[in-house]
């Protein structure tokens, strides 16, 4: 494995950053997770754009152009000879003094890791997964805008732990008003009466790249997706439910908080979208 750090490549054990890096000390930084399918990097441009927009929002200057960043990702994937896998792109505020002031950080640290990924066991893609709703809320936009893909994932991690303690692998998070936001690292969709719904970003969802692809694919299948406000009631009474994300792709959800969703197995619209998505990533 070759890990890119600030323009150099290091082996897995040699890939280290300073304990004075503010990414570690304060979670001060941004990241992306990107998929590689058959040696091709999926939606690289979109991921790099989202990275730079997250950085812009936190006043973090990335010390290279977007084009140079895309090339660095492509080079790292090529050097690792990775055909199918995952890229973790991280930009931290960089090394600085103790104390939160980012002004002590001279230059951002850029890290690119290429590896395998498997977020959920295979059986859940066929049978569906049972999840819970979490008491840990998604951050509201007046605190830390959830559209920023920052290194601050503590409340998502708390939600993940809550899921684990309930014997599940994933949790749905709500915003402080009780509207559904998303899962801990995935977006969420429901189907009801042949219509498709997902929370609008203003309810606390990250604008997932996979989510946006699903919205596009749905339209091509003559399903009109609606970005709207959803509550737990909508989840409990949905005909179908599924999660989307770079690592997870599309996972059918068949149970939420002990309620059986739809017929308790992956629904027709979900299956159509899974099939169309598999074709899309090949194309
Ligand atoms: N919501 C959140 C909070 C995320 O972190 C998504 C939705 C899905 O977005 P994309 O653009 O991937 O469709 C994410 C993505 C991981 C991991 O290591 C996390 C993400 C992606 C891939 C892997 O758990 N976050």
Write down the overall mean pLDDT. Answer: 97
Please state the CA-atom Rg, rounded to the nearest Å: 19 Å
SS elements, strand count: 15
Total number of helices: 8
Helix content: 25-40%
Query: In terms of structural class, how would the helical and strand content be classed?
Result: alpha+beta
Question: What kind of sheet is the major sheet?
Answer: 9 strands, mixed
Show unreliable segments. none
CATH domain class name of the largest domain: Alpha Beta
Domain count, please report it: 2
Cofactors and ligands:
3-[O-phosphonopyridoxyl]--amino-benzoic acid
- The percentage of residues in β strands lies in 25-35%
CATH superfamily (homologous) name of the largest domain: D-amino Acid Aminotransferase, subunit A, domain 2
What's the CATH architecture name of the largest domain? Alpha-Beta Barrel
Shape: globular
Could you say what the CATH topology of the largest domain is called? D-amino Acid Aminotransferase, Chain A, domain 2
The string of secondary-structure elements, in order, is: EEHEEHHEEHEHEEEEHEHEEEH
What would your notes on this structure say?
The longest helix is centred in the C-terminal third of the chain and has 15 residues, at 268-282. The chain has helices spanning 22-26, 44-57, 66-79, 123-127, 154-165, 209-220, 232-236, 268-282, and strands at residues 3-5, 8-10, 29-37, 40-41, 85-92, 109-115, 129-133, 171-174, 180-183, 187-192, 195-199, 225-228, 240-245, 249-256, 259-260. The strands form 2 sheets. Strands 7, 8, 9, 10, 11, 12, 13, 14 and 15 form a 9-stranded mixed beta sheet that branches. It folds into 2 domains: 2-115, 2-Layer Sandwich (D-amino Acid Aminotransferase, Chain A, domain 1), CATH 3.30.470.10; 122-282, D-amino Acid Aminotransferase, subunit A, domain 2 (D-amino Acid Aminotransferase, Chain A, domain 2, Alpha-Beta Barrel). It has 8 helices and 15 strands. The mean pLDDT is 97. The protein is an alpha+beta fold and 283 residues long. It binds 3-[O-phosphonopyridoxyl]--amino-benzoic acid. 3-[O-phosphonopyridoxyl]--amino-benzoic acid is lined by residues 33, 156, 182, 185-187, 206, 208-211, 244-247.
